[in-house]
Amino acid sequence: MAKRKHPPRAPGDRLSRAGRRARRRRSRGRFSAVPAGPGDGAACGPEGRRGEPSTRADGAFWIYGVHAVEAALANPRRACHRLLVADGVGGNIAAAIADARAAVPGRPQPEFVDRAEIDRLLPPQAVHQGVALLARPLPTPTLENVLGNADAEATVVVLDQATDPRNIGAVLRSAAAFGAIAVVVQDRHTPPLTGTLAKAASGAVEAVPLLRVVNLARALWALKDAGFWCAGLDPAAERTLADAALEGRVALVLGAEGRGMRRLTRDTCDALLRVPILPGAESLNLSNAAAIALYELKRRRR
Predict the structure, then answer these.
(1) Beta bridge partners of 253
(2) What is the CATH number of domain 143-301?
(3) Can you state the angle between helices 91-103 and 66-73, rounded to 10 degrees?
(4) What's the number of CA atoms in the CB half-sphere (13 Å) around residue 162?
(5) Alpha carbons 222 and 213: distance in angstroms, whole number
(6) Can you tell me whether residue 85 is helix, strand or coil?
(7) Minimum mean pLDDT range among 49-58, 74-83, 169-178
(8) pLDDT band (50, 70, 90) for residue 293
(9) Three-state secondary structure call for residue 152
(10) Range 143-165 average pLDDT
(11) Which CATH number fits domain 60-135: 3.40.190.10, 3.30.1330.30, 3.40.50.1110, 1.10.3720.10?
């Protein structure tokens, strides 16, 4: 498959100092993932980005909700600092947290606090179920690392213009349930991996890497070079996902609800397919469409 070429720069086209710095930043790891943790939140004021509490200098942030905290505690790759448990939390929740702590030596002892103390540390209306864990972001692999370890029937999910952390978290949850090896997003305009996203993922952030890339179209070309068939989901497409009978390595490409995929993303896909829905229903929610598409791929491969 031919690689895309870029026009040469004219000899007299000199870059400014700022332009040279920007080019150096872009050239560092052409397809490498930007760390998914919210380590830059502290620079965004007391609320960080998108209403999340600011993080520590080492990038540590609060994970909350029983399933998210349980999965993080049981993940030996996750560095954990503090574990808060609300006074009077239910016995089943306490037992689940205790079992997760026992899975990895050296986990922090639970600090029993008033529920209002946990409320104060988390975003407004956060459904924490009485547990919160201060933990550092996971080490993030590069796209090349992930593709290098992909098997013959690997699935990758690519999200274009996804800005809702709950939607992205739900996609991660479906990716984990149906065996996708990664979820790829564009770094710009995509929310950081904070407690809100981790809560929606219900522990899936421990199993499926969220890869943030600078250029989504280039990432799609990297997937193609690695033998992936890039299938974009478009409600206006003629063929359905089932009709396409996709085999081998597949990258499912989805756009945000309403806006869909950008033109360059659409043009880079090998095919545009749709999930069949009844007339009168405009489109599916991003996470619902991802779950249905992942299920269809998994069903065909059984």
Answers:
(1) 158, 232
(2) 3.40.1280.10
(3) 20
(4) 31
(5) 11
(6) strand
(7) 49-58
(8) very high
(9) coil
(10) 95
(11) 3.30.1330.30
